[in-house]
Amino acid sequence: MSQLHAVQADVLVVGGGTAGCVAAIAAAEEGARVILVESDTALGGVATRGGIHRYYYGSPGGLQEGIDRRTAEAAAVFGGKTKGFHPDAKRVVLAALCRELGIGVWLDSVVYEVIKEADGVAGVLLLTPAGPLEVRAGVTIDSTGNAHLVRMAGGKLRHGRQLDGIYHNYSFIPRRVLDGEIGYDNLDAGWVDPYDPWDVSRAFIRGREWVRQGVEQGARYFAVSSMLGVREGGLIEGDATIVLRDYIEDRPSPEVIARSYSHLDNHGFDTGNESEFSQLWIAVMGLFVKGLWCDIPYGALLPKGLERLLVAGRALSAERDVSMGIRMQKDMHKTGEAAGVAAALSLKADCTPRQLDRSLLQKRLVERGVLEQEDLQRSTGRNLRFRQGDLAGLELDGDKAVRYSEQLAGYLGTEESWKAVWLLGRSSAAAGGPEIIPLLAGKLEGEDEAAGGAFCSAITLAMLGREEPVPYLLGLIAARDSNKLSNHPKCVPFWVASFVLLRMLRSPAGLKEAVIALAEQPGAVHSTFLLDYLSSVLRLLSREQRAEAAAAVKAWLGSAGLGEDYRMHGDRPESLRWSLELRAAAFLSQAGEDDKLSMNIAAASVSDSRGYVRNAAARLIPGSAAGTLDKEPAVPLLGTFDLAVIGAGTAAVICAAALGLRGKRVVLLAPGSALLTEVTRCRVTAFQGAAEQEDHAVSRLIRLLRREGAWNGAQLEPVRTQLAADRFLEEAGVSALYEARTLRSWKEGERQAVELATKNGRCIIYAGELVPAAGGYGSTRPAAPGTLTAVLTCTEPFGQEADGRWSPWLWTASRLLLRLRPGYYPEEAYLDIRWPEEAAGTAASGELLMVPAVGELRRQGRIPDTAALAYIADDVWPEGLSGEAGSGLNPEDTFIADQITAGLAAAARLPDH
């Protein structure tokens, strides 16, 4: 490890994404000296790097309004139509704001240790492109999304859903132009454990398999995300926790720092594996898209037991069901702004964030437009205000609703049924309300079921723990009643929903019907509800009934295609067999039946390559698997290999593959999420001077590039090149560990120990030999003056220069060097820009110059009016690759071929023994 350097700040923000950028900007505006650390090579997180450049729900106000205005101005220069806001315009604006405010931005840098002192968190140790760095600060803000700092500091987190620890589906987003609009395909890619480096690596590869399917179906993508679209990680245990009643009833918080507006956006369809409330809200009542307001209290940003540390973003303290509704970009902007202001104010007041006067913070947030004055003064909520009928205009809460039970019962079967069900189900349970029971029970007979009044009455009675609806529910099940309370695809028919209500009542009366339904092989989604019902009543069953249920579950386990009919968001198929088998195994184990079968299923999960499966097994069948959930941070061992190759550039990939094809156990340690990074991250697309040779590795790569349609003999197409690289390493038997940067290495006997820095902290691998990045590119490295490339798209083919390939370098009035070169497709071109030496060394010098560069080209008429900047490359070209202006040299032509040669040479130097 190189020498550790140190810097000091007032406020340190770790995570330059949705909440973190706004936190840093807000703290700087309040007068604090700020350092912002981001593991990616650009700011903005999911909006700019994750591909979701559209607001979905969320509340307005605060800094985001100004950011959006400046983004629109930059987008106007970039041109074209965009779905939502222009992601790279926002990337540029965030970088510009940080520079204007003097924020020290450390990109491509990852925290591997939290510094703790007696009075709390004092800073972090991070690995930057220039080496390790110690950053000390008066206040630190964890904006990592997954509370990585809280976890490293020993704070407590709640992980995933209670049943099996599974998190929401993640996305991996490709970007495209569709119908003339710059947009993206937001389709789920599966499940991931964001704290398991191997599972994260697997998720990148799996996500790109979905991109491959899109390509095979004719989609033309110009980029893929540099990060996973992780919707959920751990949730901190804070001084205040937002609970369900706060959320549903919009209960005022005396320490509110932001308002949230969204629905309970759970991306899973296996709702029978979710909490009882989620089953009731989403599957039974069909309220998935119901928007709700909610206060976010200051205490939700304060992790218990940790001083001088704030959390901004979706990891804030909330019950898991609530967390689904308070993770939208706009709302996370506001939590970031509140955290940044709180950090700065606490330093001014010479106190910790926990000691800060809440009223002082709220006053400042009102002045900044994050809050409205009325948000501090309201005594009722907005969610349960009736719009029609006898209670129109009245806002009730669960404590007062018992007074209006008869009027509320009149709403059952109307558009506002859900409000009445919630209020009656809660208030009567709390205050008695026996007068409502006969009224509800009477509605179970003679109702027009299409209106749902009877079923809503059954829901309410079930919430009250009453047995009156049991015969009615059994009748719905026997008739396989297909009515639903909503047309939303996550809402289930009455006969399935009836099992949820019987589960709430812990009534074993539905046992025989559940056994019959399982034998009918009802499909993956409905099976989750049946298994959940059987598990909930298991202890109430006689020995004979347990045997009957176990026999039914075992027979169902043997059904053909178990779980293969499951569909994720976007109608993507993804097998749910792993989950169904584990749930069945847990049931059989608890039933005391066929323990051998359940243990075989559990044993198979131990070696499963999917970290989330191992976690689920550890939760469902304790002691069966080694998951990462619910464990204190440590320095885990990630594996032992013959060779570890550092880097993800062309030379490193070729070297690793050549060694793997020689039968070696090889791991490639990739600092980012991409392979062949000169092409995929920098857009060095010229590829000549290499052809199929006798060498095994090169021949395989060339064949794959051709097969993937990634090479036309002159140029490489970056997205397809990445897809080819994934297959290349897979066929060579090489394991790729992504987002892993080498911290240090040392000798232990005959092997090398390599300590890595990941987003989760430190981890270790062992290797017989460590191979540094061949070719000198593709590992973590200092930023250097170079060339930054943007992808230009157009509704018409771009014209080409006389030489058919390159335009000459153009000097601009702002001393920029610009050139255009054709893209892989006729409707695409690349804009390369270079900047003066004195502008180098800053975090975002290249991207900040994109707006004047495109403006200059437009003024000179060098690009069509319909041309639009769609994407700015992830990184600059390797130093010295661009040649001298006007020299006529194009060293790009042979660069990739030279890197291939360097990789082969590195592999050849290693002996076979």
Automatic annotation (TrEMBL):
Keywords, alphabetical: 4Fe-4S, Iron, Iron-sulfur, Metal-binding, Oxidoreductase
Pfam families: FAD_oxidored
InterPro entries in UniProt: FAD/NAD-bd_sf (IPR036188), HdrA-like (IPR039650)
Name of this protein: FAD-dependent oxidoreductase
Coiled-coil ranges from the UniProt annotation: none
SUPFAM superfamilies per record: FAD/NAD(P)-binding domain
